[in-house]
Structures are given as structure tokens and as C-alpha cells.
Design brief:
Layout (H helix, E strand, L loop, with lengths): L1 H16 L2 H7 L28 E3 L4 H14 L2 E5 L5 H15 L3 H4 L12 E3 L14 E8 L13 H26 L5 H4 L5 E9 L9 E6 L5 E6 L5 E4 L6 E3 L7 E5 L1 H6 L9 E4 L7 E9 L8 E2 L17 E2 H9 L18
Parallel strand pairs: 1-2
Antiparallel strand pairs: 2-10, 3-4, 4-5, 5-12, 6-11, 7-10, 7-12, 8-9, 8-11, 13-14
Protein name: Iron/ascorbate family oxidoreductases protein
Organism: Dioscorea alata
């Protein structure tokens, strides 16, 4: 009981600084607080240095690009996209803007610190801080761009223009990629868009400061994403790892200048009736001397009323392959995700149907 009380006190004290992990690093610590010690570090499966996730070239003829995306979504759940048309300068400016916010003086950052991530702009360290087994070594800024547009004046000026521009760019690219994904499933290219899958967008700008003990914690614990699709830009430091479905090992997602990382979410696995896979991924603690930055845009359906139901597409259900999942009520689905610890919290299990 005493240990539990001490941990709760330490978590509260850390949170009340409103300075995040960056504040700990700025204080000059040489070892990480015990609230960050992950008890499962020793259970980690090996990293396969000879494997890599697929890279898809969007400049290839459309049928070839469709085939490559289909294979990547089915076998890996992840791919890096190159020749996508978004200038490298736009990507670099977006990364720089997120870095600039996280490196503002603590007194300025703390004005945005909150545990409530719903709203125009929020800043916090560890969404699941108070109910995870261990805190992770990262801070996050978060914006919701849709279905409700943010109040732009509430976004810090240091990153406002760049993040708004990035949302516009990534939305149009996601529209194109979702169309290719649909073709890979053999359904109308507009099918996901018609389901409002472009209309729910949240953006997380993660900041991973150098960690003095990277072998004792993670930057982001293993998990799957709940929605349709996530699109990530990352700097050149690296640290993202994907769990291989075939080889039961972790695979480094090595940064490619200008590339975007796409991954399938749990809801897309449900909608695709298990054709596309949502897989576990994580970020190791930053062992470099420079802070790492990544920006993830999460796409979920924008229709979230009580009557908005999602499930396997009827076009993908047959006698040979019946529905693998029950229908999902969107509002309940998202609330369930937000009220759990992040680690390994797949949203699939409650909706799986028993095979007859």
C-alpha cells in the first residue's frame, strides 16, 4: 500500500509541474524517476535488424501502387510512402514548429498543460499517466481539427500556421491513399470517404527528449491505434518499431527523408473484415543527444452520433468469408479507448465474432 501511495504522490507531483519530461531534462537529472521504470523491459522480444516495413512509391502506375499498398496493409499494417507530392520543406517546417513549441520556456508551455485533450489545443505528458504501469519518456501537444474546427487563436503562434497547413496537406494525401486502399479491397475508391473517415482528425506532436537511462523506459509503449488510419512524419533520429506478424519480432522503421509512415488502425481492420491488419508498434526511449520529434495525424469517422454504426463492409462479406466482427457504435468505441491505459489496448477483441 505504501509503495502505491508513494507512486501516486510522485505522479501527482510530476503532473503538477506542468513542465513534462522536458522539465525533468532541463533540471539536469542523470537518472529517471521511478514512475518511468517499465517493469516489462526484460520481457521484450528481439529486434530484427534484417527486416524493414514496405516502402510504397506513389509515382508508380496506379495498379502497381494499389497492389503494393494492399500487400503492405495485409502483411505488415504499415508502410512508408515516398513520391507523395508533399514538399520536403513543408515536412521540415512542420517538425520544426512542433519542436519550437516543446522548447518554449516552461512557464509558457505550462499555460497549455491539461489532462483534458478535447479542445482546440492541449499539451500534456502521457495521456494515461495515472493508470499506466509506467510513464513513458515523452511530451505531447494535441489538436483536434475535425469534425469540429479548432479556434485558431488558441493554437500557439509558434506552431499555428505550420500545423494548420499540415492538416490540409495530410488530409488530401490521406484521401488519395484511402482511395487506393479501397481499390485494394475491391470496393469503390470513395467508400471510406463516404463513411466520413476523413472527417475525424486529431494531431499529436510528440517530443522525445534525450533519456539518461533509455534501457529502463519507453518513449511510447506498444499499442495499436483505434481508428481508420494514422499518418506520421518523423525526424531522422528514429525510434519507432513495428511488431512483425510473421516473425514475432520488432522491426525498426528507419527514417527516410521526406517519407510519410502510414498504418492501419483497429477500426479499418474491422471495416475490411480482417483483410487489412492493425499491428502493435512502439517507440524506444531516445538514447541520442538530440530530442526526437514526430507528428501523427489520426483519421477516424466524423459521424459519431448514437445511431452511427460501423462494421465489416457488406461487399466483403460472403458465405466463404462471413463477418468477423460485430458492428461498432462509434461514440462508445472511442470512449472505451480514451478510458484505458495505452499499452497493448487493441479495440478489436470486444467485437470479434466466434467462427462457426
Amino acid at each position: 500500500m505504501a509503495a502505491s501511495t508513494d507512486r501516486a504522490t510522485s505522479l501527482k507531483e510530476f503532473d503538477e509541474t506542468k513542465a513534462g519530461v522536458k522539465g525533468l531534462v532541463d533540471s539536469g537529472i542523470t537518472s529517471i524517476p521511478t514512475i518511468f521504470h517499465d517493469p516489462n523491459m526484460h520481457l521484450s522480444i528481439p529486434v530484427a535488424t534484417h527486416l524493414s516495413i514496405p516502402t510504397v512509391d506513389l509515382s508508380l502506375p496506379r495498379p502497381i501502387a494499389v497492389d503494393h499498398i494492399r500487400s503492405a496493409c495485409r502483411d505488415w499494417g504499415f508502410f512508408q510512402l515516398i513520391n507523395h507530392g508533399i514538399p520536403l520543406s513543408t515536412i521540415e517546417k512542420t517538425i520544426s514548429a512542433v519542436r519550437s513549441f516543446h522548447e518554449l520556456p516552461a512557464a509558457v508551455r505550462s499555460q497549455y498543460y491539461t489532462r483534458a485533450i478535447l479542445g482546440s489545443f492541449s499539451y500534456f505528458s502521457n495521456q494515461d499517466l495515472f493508470y499506466s504501469e509506467a510513464a513513458s519518456w515523452r511530451d505531447t501537444l494535441y489538436l483536434i481539427f475535425s469534425p469540429v474546427r479548432p479556434e485558431l487563436e488558441r493554437i500557439p503562434e509558434v506552431c499555428r500556421l505550420e500545423l494548420v497547413k499540415w492538416d490540409e496537406s495530410v488530409k488530401e494525401l490521406a484521401r488519395e491513399v484511402m482511395g487506393l486502399m479501397c481499390e485494394g479491397l475491391g470496393v469503390d475508391p470513395r467508400r471510406l470517404e463516404e463513411l466520413s473517415c476523413l472527417d475525424g482528425r486529431g494531431m499529436a506532436g510528440h517530443y522525445y527528449p534525450p533519456c539518461p537511462e533509455p534501457d529502463r523506459t519507453f518513449g511510447l509503449v506498444d499499442h495499436t491505434d483505434p481508428g481508420i488510419l494514422a499518418v506520421l512524419i518523423q525526424d531522422q533520429i528514429g525510434g519507432l518499431q513495428v511488431k512483425s506478424m510473421r516473425d514475432e519480432c520488432w522491426v525498426d522503421v528507419k527514417p527516410i527523408p521526406g517519407a510519410l509512415v502510414f498504418n492501419v488502425g483497429d477500426l479499418l481492420q474491422i471495416i475490411s473484415n480482417d483483410e487489412y491488419k492493425s499491428v502493435q508498434h512502439r517507440v524506444v526511449a531516445n538514447s541520442s543527444k538530440e530530442s526526437r520529434v514526430s507528428i501523427a495525424t489520426f483519421f477516424t469517422p466524423g459521424k459519431r452520433e448514437e445511431f452511427d454504426i460501423y462494421g465489416p463492409l457488406l461487399e466483403l462479406i460472403s458465405v466463404e468469408k462471413p463477418a468477423r466482427y460485430a458492428n461498432v457504435k462509434m461514440i462508445e468505441y472511442l470512449n472505451a479507448f480514451l478510458n484505458k491505459k495505452l499499452k497493448s489496448k487493441s479495440q478489436l477483441d470486444p467485437y470479434k465474432l466466434l467462427e462457426k
